[in-house]
Design goal:
With about 300 residues, the protein is α+β, with helices and mostly antiparallel strands. It contains nine helices and nine strands.
């Protein structure tokens, strides 16, 4: 059974299990005037994600009750992107959200299509290039992206990992913080998606590609939106050389030629490992992958064995 950390209640005494979030789902849908009968649980991780049977709507229930400001911002971003006709996930019209049920934050999103089909890294490059040309309205009040603060908060919450592993990750973060402060970014500062990768670009039912997971939108050097695609190709082999070449061609910049690439890659990689450390109570697969990744960071070897999550 999947549960919250240590099986403890999270928001409002709700235990983050299939049974616990099902009650939250029903109450949230009743509040929004949606029919919950036949809803399908797609995944249970940092969010519980449901697909409704009655309408093409996805319901996301956040495990962390503190994400309310992020989800409020994500809904605002989605509505603005729709106004400027940018291809991204939409929120249903006429539903006031987010809603808080039993201490957990619930949001509603239009379903992109009935099955999950990823778009291509070339299309990701096209959308990022287009996104980076947009000037965000001040009404969005996007935060400045502080990777070290985000990483520090993530490491502080790694209660389920060994003290030895956590100390190692914290020492690595301290070293990278000093290197990060010395970086000379070359791309313009501005709006970023914040988690731009092949996993967050889906094929819409009408054929075009759309960006999803909008809660990471922030103001930062644009290099942050390119690092995962480069990293996935360069270190893990999750993209082919041809795919990465297409990404570079269509975006117009090769991050791997930038002198700060290795530092940014090391930092983004550490953030990925810390995130996975919060999932080790979710499944044995997560725990095994976390151990594999920490071993790679210690030895500098075996990154080609990492599995995508």
């Amino acid at each position: 059974m999947i549960s919250g950390s240590g099986g403890k209640p999270v928001g409002g005494g709700t235990v983050f299990t299939a049974e616990g979030v099902a009650a939250v789902l029903r109450e949230a849908c009743e509040t929004a005037g949606l029919d919950v009968d036949g809803a399908e649980l797609l995944r249970l991780g940092s969010h519980a994600v449901y697909r409704l049977a009655s309408l093409p709507v996805i319901v996301r229930i956040a495990r962390d009750p503190s994400v309310l400001p992020e989800m409020e911002r994500a809904v605002g971003v989605a509505r603005w992107l729709q106004k400027v006709d940018f291809p991204a996930t939409r929120v249903p019209a006429g539903i006031a959200q987010p809603v808080v049920v039993r201490g957990l934050v619930v949001t509603f999103w239009e379903s992109v299509q009935e099955r999950e089909e990823y778009a291509t890294v070339g299309e990701l490059a096209d959308l990022l290039r287009r996104l980076h040309w947009l000037e965000e309205p001040t009404s969005l009040s996007l935060p400045y992206f502080n990777p070290m603060a985000k990483l520090s908060a993530s490491l502080d919450g790694l209660n389920a990992v060994s003290e030895e592993d956590r100390s190692f990750l914290e020492e690595r973060a301290t070293k990278l913080a000093k290197e990060y402060d010395q970086l000379d970014f070359v791309l313009p500062f501005g709006m970023i998606h914040g988690d731009a990768s092949i996993g967050n670009i889906l094929r819409h039912r009408d054929g075009h590609a759309v960006l999803i997971d909008l809660d990471g939108f922030a103001l930062a050097p644009r290099e942050w939106d390119l690092i995962q695609t480069a990293l996935f190709y360069d270190r893990y082999g999750w993209h082919t050389q041809a795919q990465y070449a297409e990404f570079v061609h269509r975006y117009g910049f090769d991050l791997m030629n930038w002198p700060g690439y290795e530092t940014l890659a090391d930092l983004r990689e550490l953030m990925m490992v810390a995130w996975l450390g919060h999932q080790i109570g979710v499944s044995e697969r997560s725990a095994a992958e976390f151990a594999r990744r920490v071993r790679s960071l210690r030895t500098g070897e075996g990154r080609e064995e990492w599995s995508p999550f």
